[in-house]
Amino acid sequence: MNLKRREFIKISSITAAGSLIVPPFFNSCKGVRLSDNAESYLNHFEVTKDLLQKVISAAMEKGADYADLFFEHTLENYSSLEDGKVNSAYSNIGYGVGIRVLKGEQTGYAYSESITADAMLKAARTAANIADGTAVVSPVRINEFISPSYYPLKTSWEDTSVKDKIPFIQRMNDNIFAADKQVIKVNAVLGDSTSYILFFNSDGELAWDYRPMVLLYGVCIMEKNGQVENFFVGRSHRMGSEFLTNELIDELSKEVVAKTSLLYSATKPKAGEMEVVMGAGESGILLHEAIGHAFEADFNRKNTSIFSDKMGQKVAEDFVKIVDDGTLQGKRGAINFDDEGNPTEKTVIVNNGILTSYLHDRISANYYKVNPTGNGRRQDFRNIPIPRMRCTYMENGPHKRDEIIASVKNGVYVESFSNGEVNIGQGDFTFFVKLGYLIENGKLTKPIKDFNIIGNGPQALADMIMVGDDLEINNGIWTCGKDGQGAPNSMGIPTVKIKKLTVGGITV
Amino acid sequence: MDKNEKYSLADLVIEHALKSGANQVSVNIYENRSNNIEIRDQKIDSLKESNQSGLSISLYVDKKYSSHSTNRMKKEELFRFVEEAIIATRFLAEDEFRSLPDAELYYKGGGSDLNTFDPKLDSVDAKTKISLANQALSEAFGKDDRIISVSSYYSDSITNSVMVTSNGFRGDSGNTRVSLAVTVSLKSLTGRPNDYWSENALFLDKLKTTDIGKKALERTINKIDPKKIISGKYSVVVDNRVAGNLIYPVYGALLGSSLYQKQSFLIGKENKPIASGLLTAFDDPFIPSGPASRLFDDEGLAAVKRPIIEKGVLKSYFIDNYYGRKLGMKPTSGSISNVIFNTGSRNLDELIGTLNKGVLITGFIGGNCNGSTGDFSYGIEGFFIQDGKKVHPVNEMNITGNMNQFWFSLAEVGNDVNENSSIKIPSLMFKNVDLSGI
């Protein structure tokens, strides 16, 4: 149990392929996609506006400041390939309502997996116990929140059968085997999920959302002269089955074969502090770990973040601008409104090198007397919403990629990662590099692999001395872990040079 | 649902699946109740109560396989769920290795009570739980001027489950768990160091409830103003609280799925040395009230106590039913239970006392291990040791190596097993390890 650590894990372990299974075509209990209005979502969960008001009243009956109801119905399907065939499937259905009650900064929470009046009133009264007074709550006027559409769908996963998915997974397998004779095994998994969300709170806000998600990954395993190497590539989007195209499959297959082959010429870097160039795209993991978590306002409200006393201060060079954005269409980190009913937005956290905003949930926004930023998210109805990142990236800077690499005499260039972690209070962060290159006299030379890099958040931010003009948003399968809850994220960055990080390598 | 109701529902679902076209079926039904309380700076921060239940099912349909789970437990819905799942399964490719385990490998009842369920836990009231958390917090709160935040956490969990297969397995189990933890954050010149201490037990009256806040505070104070040291080869001692982290990659490499996927650096190593002769570890499912004690595993296979590593020699892989068939190996179990390490004669302080110049590792942060090659690299924190004494805390460093060589550099095992974990591992000392710092 390590309560202060935030782990970030990309699905990249091959053993995961054995346990994730391909699913059939479960769809919602109504069998049809809901039309986009409040009534259809109320009907989906078999509730009425009157009942919602009653449950909120019960949640507020001990004198709380606020209460909300989060209804969720999620259908997940996974199809997986092993030994050249799509030969297993897994599916899951999650259904229930989470009831949260706030009194100041205090939270009471309970949920029910059965959406009946009795079960909900019981859960509401349990959550209500966070307050200890009495109150009579009269129903408030209901305002329907019409959400924007950051993930428009062409074909929902509920309308896509397992039969339609199999050929794409099979194509990835066949491509990879055809590309290189050294390939001995391929694993591939396609996972999709669909969530129906209905939200109601004591301010009368009523919102609903239909949230699709897809992930696809392939693992290539090669054997050459007894040496086994593997590489993982994946993509994830909030999209329907229009995500699946032959072009995408071909691109992923090509990338995974090329990168696995490269590992045979890769070595380990030397140990110690050195200049590090972060390649555009996937290196956004640096922002997520080194900076993003420490900007989540729950840590700052509790004074436990190393950035707790840095608001309004200069923390980086003038050309550094970092944002957390929930509005990027179809991205894994996109969200129409957050899991406590607040609209999402593009939040600028560092502008001209100055710390301008934390990432807020409802509690912290209230504490700091600022508008919520739409970062209150939860893994599912069983969990309390907390401040989480969405798509975190750095905007373009003044430098050219070539010029950045040319400026390094002895250092490393890193571009593919599997996982990272941060300690919020001391600011130490790490990321594990699957593939990179040595930089010798301003040029990329030998590939390097499998090493950890560790640094300190505020120091690394101040040490970003060059920022490229080649921003790339990475569409990898990033899942962030915090307080035991997973949340989907995206990230991005242009090519960036950091003056000094500690590279885990070999000492001579 | 009580136990009998769970069995009846499992039987009904299996019967319906067989009638709808499945050849073999396995069903697991569980219920879990849990409570989580967080106190921060003497005020309740959050109270959470959870009640969940679910059913998972594995279907074997004409040599095709799929598995599913749901928390919609009404009989009619489950029946439709199963029917749809069977139809969909037929679209998959055949896999000749998919079938339920051989019935002779199943646990057949008659095992002794492993004492993993506290029947009194369910009736403990919220006040008692809150007061435990308050008391743990009070050992740290206000006890040092540098404190910026103290939180304490009480959590408990009660799980009951039954499992039934269409080829004759029937089993049920009940487990309880309770834990108490404190985290402390301090203000210092270089950051806001934090650390924690936690205790857990299966029975509330066995839970150690004192010295949690005190230890959390002490540990945090000790971490103030860390610095890194120069890169090089050092002797290291790994604290028993975190030594288990070094075992996980070894465990991963022993799994049938890893062997089959060539994602293991331990392929072909059975009965060969993989570590220093000082290392001996058993998988023991039968420890009374052990955190991972069990009579059968999640496929119903009868639990067996077996050596994993004896005097550095690999004795057993962890092979589940499916990968056992694919690899042509006899299934052992697809997962570990309690892992018991042999101990040495000296405690942590005595081990530290033997280091002329080295590092005591008290925490890992990030990093990974390549399962195929055994190459690993992890972030670390701890203390720089000179002449057997702690000189200053260290952070922002990495430990790097290869699992195949690293375990041979094990120089001594301590006598201080971590009782809070199912991995009962003592503190370990390694020689000649690559640490990256300045």
The CATH homologous superfamily name of the largest domain in chain A equals PmbA/TldD superfamily
Kindly provide the name of the CATH class of the largest domain in chain A.
Answer: Alpha Beta
**Assembly classification:** heterodimer
- Total strand segments of chain A: 23
Pattern of helices and strands of chain B: HEEEHHEEEHEHHEEEHEHEEEHEEE
Report the structural category of chain B. alpha+beta
- On the 0 to 100 scale, the average pLDDT of chain B is 96
CA-based gyration radius of chain A: 24 Å
Count every helix of chain B, treating DSSP H or I runs of 4 or more residues as helices. Answer: 9
How many whole angstroms does the radius of gyration of chain B measure?
A: 24 Å
Provide the low-confidence segments of chain B as ranges: none
**Which protein chains make the most extensive interface, counting residues with beta carbons within 8 Å of the other chain's beta carbons?**
A-B, 100 and 92 residues
Q: CATH fold name of the largest domain in chain B, please?
A: PmbA/TldD fold
User: Beta fraction of the residues of chain A?
Assistant: 35-45%
Write down the domain tally of chain B: 2
Pairing-aware structural class of the strands and helices of chain A?
alpha+beta
CATH homology group of the largest domain in chain B: PmbA/TldD superfamily
Helix content of chain A: 10-25%
Distance between the termini of chain A: 36 Å
Keywords:
heterodimer; A: 508 residues; alpha+beta; 11 helices; disordered N terminus; B: 438 residues; PmbA/TldD fold; 2 domains; 6-stranded antiparallel sheet; 5-stranded mixed β-barrel; 21% helix; 37% strand
What does this structure look like?
The complex is a heterodimer of chains A (508) and B (438). By secondary structure, chain A is α+β, with helices and mostly antiparallel strands. Chain A contains eleven helices and 23 strands. Chain A has helices spanning 14-19, 38-44, 49-59, 117-128, 162-179, 246-262, 285-292, 297-301, 362-368, 401-406, 457-462; strands at 5-10, 66-82, 85-103, 106-112, 143-145, 183-201, 205-224, 227-237, 272-278, 322-325, 346-351, 354-355, 376-377, 386-387, 391-394, 410-423, 428-440, 443-448, 451-456, 464-467, 472-482, 485-493, 496-503. In chain A, strands 2, 3, 4, 5, 6, 7 and 8 form a seven-stranded mixed beta sheet that branches. In chain A, strands 9-16-17-19-23 form a five-stranded mixed barrel. Chain A is globular. In chain A, 60% of the residues are buried. Mean pLDDT of chain A is 90; it is low at 1-33. Chain B has helices spanning 3-19, 75-89, 126-138, 212-222, 240-254, 256-260, 321-327, 348-353, 403-406; strands at 24-40, 43-61, 64-70, 147-165, 170-186, 194-201, 232-238, 281-283, 306-310, 313-314, 339-341, 357-369, 375-386, 389-402, 410-413, 423-424, 428-436. Chain B is an alpha+beta fold and 438 residues long. In chain B, strands 3-2-1-4-5-6 form a six-stranded antiparallel beta sheet. A five-stranded mixed beta barrel of chain B has the order 7-12-13-14-17. In chain B, helix 1 (3-19) packs parallel to helix 2. Chain B has two domains: 3-222, PmbA/TldD superfamily (PmbA/TldD fold, 2-Layer Sandwich), CATH 3.30.2290; 227-438, no CATH class. Classes of the chains: A alpha+beta (508), B alpha+beta (438).
